[in-house]
């Protein structure tokens, strides 16, 4: 018997990295997984390899696309038990370098996408009297992250949205839970892209970067599985870090001494 057997999960950002690893594990543990991503070619190909998964093209920045997605899933599966908001993009830029385009692009996917997902799954889960929303944040929302300014701000917004939804649900007896996951560096194409940019632009910082702890996508998928399952039925409004102590011991700023 799988840990999420019979549940229906919608996962965004499912064509890569943490969303893909989570989709695989949820399907392996018995869920029907709707893998949603803007990268339709890769998403289709990957979903075809996962038993229990199907792909649905979704640009999370488009509110109507979310409404259509939940209508389709509700029609075909009759329910939505799990929503993992995992789609995200990053721009390597401090506040001094961040353009309006950087700011809006990062927030469109991260902040707006998560808002639309939560807003439109809420009536479905409320009607069911149950559901688990899992929002992918970052340790950047806890410590700040000077080099990815817009990203850290977007993740902080998602962290606050998560707690507000959890409290709303508890206050009104909706029965759904909403939690956020805060990974530090995890080995995915997103991290590889950032590291490659740092290597090209700032070799000195790159040398330090190679000493930093990096987790695996499955470390995050395991936390997703826990939050998606009934094992976490008492966990609501939590911000769970996966960082091997990074937020405990490591400052975000390398001080000049
Ligand atoms: N990798 C890390 O170190 C790390 C650390 C903390 C948090 N995160 C967060 O985890 C999540 C997943 O990151 P990842 O490392 O797997 O990244 P990734 O780049 O490997 O995957 C992100 C996925 O999101 C999709 N996506 C981008 N824009 C989209 C849109 N408009 N609509 C739908 N899908 C869209 C991409 O096509 C891609 O498949 C992100 O929210 C990221 O911020 C990652």
TrEMBL record:
Domain annotation Ketoreductase: ranges: 7-177
InterPro entries, per database record: KR_dom (IPR057326), NAD(P)-bd_dom_sf (IPR036291), Sc_DH/Rdtase_CS (IPR020904), SDR_DHRS6-like (IPR051122), SDR_fam (IPR002347)
Alphabetized PROSITE patterns for the sequence: ADH_SHORT (PS00061)
Keywords: Oxidoreductase
Gene3D superfamilies reported for this sequence: NAD(P)-binding Rossmann-like Domain (3.40.50.720)
Protein family per UniProt: Belongs to the short-chain dehydrogenases/reductases (SDR) family.
Record-given protein name: SDR family oxidoreductase
Species this chain originates from: Candidatus Marimicrobium litorale
Top-level taxonomy: Bacteria, Pseudomonadati, Pseudomonadota, Gammaproteobacteria, Cellvibrionales
